[in-house]
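EI: anyone free to look at a 261-residue chain?
SC: sure, send it
EI:
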Amino acid sequence: MKPVRAKKKLGQHFLTDLSIAQKIADSLIFDNYEKVLEVGPGMGVLTQFLVTKTKALHLIEIDSESISYLKKKYTELEVKLIEGDFLKIDLKEIFRNDTFAIIGNFPYNISTQIVFKTLEYRDQIPFFAGMFQKEVAERICEPPGSKKYGILSVLSQIFYTTSYLFTVHPQVFSPQPKVDSAVMQMVRKDDFSLDCDETFLFKVVKLSFQQRRKTLRNSLKTLNLPNMLREDAIFDLRPEKLSGDDFIQLTKRIGHGNFSN
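SC: here you go
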């Protein structure tokens, strides 16, 4: 079949190394997930290693040329092909309340948004793995205390255990990206529920890192906290020093006003 033309506006870089595609597929423990969603399959380089191991493989692809290619390559019994924008699709219309895993060689221009959508559907997604720009994969997996540690790190690690698996170099893609790539995975924690207000937690985390060089006392001043609360020692810290659990406790203390001296 005629290969699909990579489109810059869609951030397409097609993986050409089959051994790497196999390694990505092998990162998924198939016995645990009957339903798997591959995002951005392109010409199906990764799909071919998923289709024989997955009871119900769903593909979401926005590129109509790739859709036509995949329809010729796979039957409806092998994959369930969905044409559309992953970021705009209501995943409950596809999976209802069933659990499913997500995997893919993600378009780099929307990769962080894919993670945020995964967090939104975390009740149904126990496992997530895929290819990212190396810098983004490092940010997701970075522990507290580093310059790379930020909003994406905190929110991902609150709900999932994140792991940086391996680095992938540009020459295994067509066209070659200008940066290194990496494969990472997120395994949902056994206890991923929050005992604080989720909306407020997300607000606190985002406000904290908007001015990451400043202490929490300055970055959170728009919350108009009483002076007696702002004197707590935690406000002397910069946001990268706080773990996800620290942010949860901070959110609860701000919300309840029960700071300790």
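EI: The domain at 8-188 is CATH 3.40.50.150 (Rossmann fold).
SC: 👍
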